[in-house]
Please model this.
Amino acid sequence: MKWCWAIQKRCSIAYVKKNTKDSIKNYKTFSIPRQRSVRAAGEATMHRVKEKLKAAEQKSKAFKQQQGLFITALERSRDQAQEKTKPVTSVAQVQWYTEDHCSNTTDWHVYSLFLMIMEDLIEVLDILEAQGSTSNVLENCRILLCPTTDISNLRAQFPHDEVNRLSCVEARSYYGGVVSLVPVAIDLLREAACTTGFVQKETEKPETPKPQPTESIPESNVEDTLATQTGNSHQAKKPSKEVGGWNAGNPAWRPPGRSKV
Model:
């Protein structure tokens, strides 16, 4: 009976060890693909953020070139809506102009470009917030991109020149906020993406000064130059004659015909 009990105990221990090894092996085989899938999902999200930011920047460059058309369209829409004395205060107001107070296809196209940029920026903001990113930059950007936020006092600073391209103080007070919204929002989203690691911050490399070529002087010229310099120095240090003018050192003048006694 004892040897049967010992055999049964050994068999149970071997069974437990085998199951433990199998479970560890299965855990390893399942954990590696899971880690790879998480990493692939993170890379896909990073690529998506980069592409959306790049698309928004390309559209913003085209919109900047059409800023004059955008201001003209806003002037016409404000005239039709009888809001000539009110500035453009929000994205919702531009959307209202697009739907109800758009007079031609040119105005509609430039309005649509502006609204598409807003959609791209909001999508980038949603992606960053979905990844658990929380910062004051994202909160400010969320408030800024809200369609009903008052942006009339918003002004883009240097190096952006959207405000400076407006014609006069009156135009700046009416349209300074709406033309500043796109560059300011892009800067905030890029800063948020850099802090979370989705986009690498671009740093300018300091320019190293190029060494200036030195002119080689022949040895013969060097020797001549040294000889000239030493000769001049000897002439400068040569002691002068006795004081007496041009006839210094000559005997005194005597009248002719008289001999020396």
Observations:
- The longest helix spans residues 2-65.
- Residues 53-196 form one domain.
- Residues 202-211 have pLDDT under 50 and may be disordered.
